[in-house]
Amino acid sequence: MKMPAPDPALIARQGEIVRALRRIVPGEGVIGDRDGLIPFQSDGLSAYRQQPLAVVLPETVEQVSAVLAWCQANGVKVVPRGAGTSLSGGALPLADGVILGMARFNRILEIDLANRCAVVQPGVTNLAITGAVEADGFYYAPDPSSQIACTIGGNVAENSGGVHCLKYGLTTNNLLGCEIVLMSGEVVRLGGKGFDAAGYDLLGVVTGSEGLLGVVTEVTVRLLARPETARAMLLGFASVEAAGACVGDVIAAGVIPAGMEMMDNPAIRAAEAFVGAGYPVDCAALLIVELDGPEAECAELSAQVEGLARARGATTIRVSSNDAERLTFWAGRKAAFPAVGRISPDYYCMDGTIPRRELPHVLTRISEMAAQYGLGVANVFHAGDGNLHPLILYDADQPGQLEAAEAFGADILKLCVAVGGVLTGEHGVGVEKRDLMGEMFNETDLACQQRVKCAFDPDLLLNPGKVFPRLHRCAELGRVHVHRGAVAFPDLPRF
Amino acid sequence: MLDLAARIETPKSAAEVAEIVASGRPLEVVGGATKRTIGAVRGAEALVSLAGLARVIDYAPEELVLTAQPGVTLATLEKLVASQGQMLPFEPPHLGKLLGAPAKLFGGKATLGGTLAANLSGPRRIRAGAARDHLLGFEAVTGRGELVKAGGRVVKNVTGYDLSKLMAGSWGTLAVMTEVTIKVLPAPRCETTLMLFGLDDARAGRAMAQAMNAPMEVSGAAHLPQAVAASAPLKAEMAVTALRLEGFEASVAARGEALSGLLREFGRAERLEGELSAGFWAQVREVEAFRKDPRPLWRVSVPPASGWRVGAGSGSTLHDWAGGLVWLATEAPAAAVRAEARALGGHATLYRGEGPAFEPLAGTLAALTARVKAAFDPDGRLNPGRFAEA
Question: What phi-psi label fits residue A105: left (phi over 0), alpha (psi between -120 and 50 degrees) or beta?
């Protein structure tokens, strides 16, 4: 993975930069020593590591603004970071850049049940929002598997999903407003507590912008009333095709489950060995279907889904009889990544989305490719919305295996695009899929996106080297007309 | 607004749209021209009608996605998805009758492109999300004359910036959409509406909040004060507060019982079922009560709990989105309407009447907005004058 060449002059100024940051954030809010920086070297995509110049942990919006303004004035790059759980390297440091950690913004500012929203600081964890409102019968719907650790600010940056987004949407569908600080240090409020705001939907474009447009300093999220009942079903099938067909049948019957997950046999075995969720380890594919709503609805729909599963020859059908059992059904799925981590020294998680009808074809191709690369693979799949998470098993200590895993992953994502899907459903582009952006977008498309970047951060100092395969200076983007999507910047550096 | 006798372009392909935009003339862009009077365009030299781009390109009911050209009418799409037991979840209003759209020149029918460009959503917005939440991807010609695409054709995607959100609600000032992919959902099997009568606006606001704060999956929450409820077509004798439940029969029945009990303090709830319920919500969606009202008509968006305060004493109101959307017919000066909306944490748009339609922005947000506009349309070719900043 190539990053933009670091500027040696900036690295030479490390001491001065740390001193300047300390003037803005006094006390222990600036880390500049070698040992202190080690925990910040990587995020959830741990295959890539880089020591940053410094880490700054501001506590107030004024400090964030001052840090960014100083960095802009001094040409210092900034990488924003929440809890560092990104799976695409969104918070991977730069050798000549500062990490702006938002962990200290950890307060819930307001719970406004009359408007069904909560105003929180960005360092609050996803799960803590639900924790703060569950006694009142509410919850925050998006639930990425890392929800115990990941922060809402990071969720906004990545437009995080989760197992319930088939019915309840991604982060972007559950936000009402946020406050961001631009690289210039200017503070902007986008949205509020109403359903829409005046002007362009800048909240919508900031959400999922992977920390390239602004630093989130406050978030207003929509709260939902907790459904009366939730029931999970475990449906085991003798073939992936049968499981995939069952998913299609459920949707065709007009049922949108709260969650509909699929695991293949290697993933089932790994999860079962790890948490003992009671999964049938001999089936080829397992569906976990969660239905929520009033008891009458759950009863009706679970009977309906059971019938559909039976018609597709399900070999196992279990329906949770209480909440503890429901959570046990989920435990294996939610722990699938660490479970796979136990059976392989390293794993590499992909995140493409495909049209669901392509599932059997794509899984067949993935197993062929696995054989070709000589690497194992376990598949977990948000089956309802077509979001595939192949986990490629490798050993970084074996020469060449990381590179093979990367190449295998790239092939999987190219396949996703080729069948009408996309590179990433919920983990983000980051550095991981950056160089594959050309599979989905031509130069004109990318230039259009980068001009939006220029509107927010004209000096390209905020999280550079992520998302876009090439850096274009904003003046050039403003001038050049890209003709028919052809490469128009032959002289610009690639990385 | 452009003189209709001036040149009208009707491109038949994205390439033709690109050619027209590349010519450099300031352009007014219309679908069915139903919302043309909102934030009137000034100084356009030609009008681009998207009536020639009206094909449904791909509809995969089992994938919950539909790809179409922007000129396809909402009516056509609604019929198509209904034939597969599905719906446009955001329940878009058509507004042609409310805004008195001229049927002669452009057909007078709301299109998919116009609906998305205006980010228009109906009563189900409180449960299913807005138009912006359903635009998954698009292809468009920017004000630079470049054909670009963003987003995708699958329901879950975070690849690149979510430019679909920018397109929704940009009122044609950034790019001319030539193809869009939207998310569709299964239509509910049945619906019922609980109606409470005679509540004043504040109590109605509380009743709606109480319903929304319970796990009832309310998919419509509207309040028609007495004066508005009395007007055509409803002609009720008292204020009406309505709550809609949709879904599977057993679930709707159970929630109907529970919700009636929950709202007992607000009086006995009457029921509207099936077609009658659907007809009532169509009236709310199309703001029928104000169709013949001569006063300027405002769309006020505020935090839902403040909805009942909007326009108090100065005009007539119709409350949708549990209070989050208030239609206000008033002779009050624009500055007063806007100031009130701002004070309540919202904004007001003039949908019918003389004067600027959109809330003016200020400070850093205005400057940022102008830079975003320039990123797409540096010469200000698309719908000039529609937004103050763009």
Answer: beta
Per residue in B112-143, pLDDT (tens digit) is: 999 999 999 999 999 999 999 999 999 999 99
**pLDDT above 70 as % of chain B:** 97
- Give the per-residue pLDDT at A492: 46
Q: What are phi and psi of A202, to 5 degrees?
A: -70, -30
Handedness of CA A69, A72, A73, A75 (dihedral sign): positive
Q: Which is nearest to B94 in space by CA: B152, B31, B137? A: B31
Nearest CA distance, B250 vs chain A (angstrom): 6
CA atoms of A81 and A33, how far apart (whole Å): 18
Which strand (E) or helix (H) includes residue A21?
helix A14-24
Name residues 247-286 of chain B within 8 A of A (Cβ): 247-251, 253-255, 258
Q: How far apart are CA B170 and CA B359, in angstroms?
A: 13
If you count residue pairs, one on A and one on B, with CB atoms under 8 Å apart, how many are there? 265
- Edge-to-edge order in the sheet of strand B27-30: B8-9, B46-49, B27-30
A17 phi, psi to nearest 5 deg = -65, -45
| Nearest-by-CA chain B residue for A436 | B159
Comparing CA positions, the residue from A350, A354, A471 lying closest to residue A407 is: A350
Distance CA A204, CA A215 (A): 14
Q: Using CA atoms, how far apart are residues A380 and A394, in angstroms rounded to an integer? A: 17
> In chain A, what is the greatest distance between 2 CA atoms, to the nearest angstrom?
70
Taking only the tens place, the pLDDT of each residue in A83-103 is 999 999 999 999 999 999 999
- In angstroms, the CA A256 to CA B226 distance is 38
A175: closest CA among A199, A202, A200?
A202
Tell me the nearest-neighbour CA distance from A349 into chain B, angstroms. 16
pTM exceeding 0.80: yes
The pLDDT of residue A471? 81
- A142 φψ region: left (φ > 0), alpha (ψ -120 to 50), beta (else): beta
In whole angstroms, give the CA distance from residue A350 to residue A410: 9
What is the least distance, in Å, from the CA of B116 to any CA of chain A?
12
